[in-house]
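<instruction>
Derive structure tokens from the sequence
<data>
Labelled lines for chain and fold:
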Amino acid sequence: MAVPDKGVHGPLAGVRVVELAGIGPGPFAAMLLADLGADVVRVDRPGGGALAINPEYDITNRNKRSVIVDLKAADGADRVLDLVERADVLIEGYRPGVAERLGVGPADCHARNPKLVYGRMTGWGQEGPLAQRAGHDIAYIAITGTLGMIGAPDEPPTVPANLVGDYAGGSLYLVVGILAALNHARVHGTGQVVDAAIVDGTAHLTSMIHGMLAAGGWQDRRGANLLDGGCPFYGNYETADGGYMAVGALEQQFYDEFVALLGLPDQAPPRKDIARWGDLREAVAARFKERTRDEWTAVFEGSDACVAPVLSLREAPAHHHLAARGTFVDHGGITQPAPAPRFSATPTDIRRGPAQAGADTADVARDWDVPALAPTDVPTKEAD
């Protein structure tokens, strides 16, 4: 583990990470480590190959530095292994066997650095009948039963962007695994491979619901349960102006405050009468249609009714609570989520904007003491 620069913040200051460039959950996991203070060096391939947007806006590459290495060149693997020798973590998101064929698989890396934590990010995992198949977030969450839980009962399942699979079931589990393996390496002096599969992480996210299913407290169909929109006091309701309000008044005391502020008549169906949930939902929906989203927001402001306006991505940063906490920040002209979580002794921040392919090669060669990494004509790039 390297000695952290005095100007670097975060609990992972001093941790060095090599990220073999990819898309999706791998870069997001590496960004999270970088946000926490790790020195993340992204190894980009010649010609790039990331998101189909201007790389200056690819926030998942913030707080990182980039070098370019052609892993298919004769000396490509050696250049990466020189970095690995000085690193604590490596992250790769290739199909199983690709890293080995390129000469940067776990055996190659551990031969140079036995303490290395080797993080592997895939959808299907390193083994199993589908391991070599292509896939994306939606397919991974589909076979775990997770996608089938989301949405209205009479409509196709709702696609939750790529948040549930790629990022929750993938990136976050990879980061948890890396941090656990880092602790093991620090205590025992040996590294290991972390096999993070989106199917495994997403399935793990459903642990509580599987328990409820086994206990008879969850029906194996959409829109029929307490937390999937089937419950009339846990869901979204349209307002007079086409906006929506989110209701989560599960506990009795919160529900009592909710119906009082909503102005439901005393003859509304009782909340515990599941057979009349449809009637209760209709009554709630009718009331919400009488006012605009902003009007209902004002009604529930400051209450414990557990009701909130459904905001768009552009609206969210201006919400008074998020603004007060600094949940979103502006950096380099881009409004973006601030690093999370927060730490009392080792605060985090956004130190630099998205890394541009190869722009930091000379700096990394100097800082990591890998002189063969950079051509002599590559200029040193100042940090943002």
Remarks:
- Residues 376-384 have pLDDT under 50 and may be disordered.
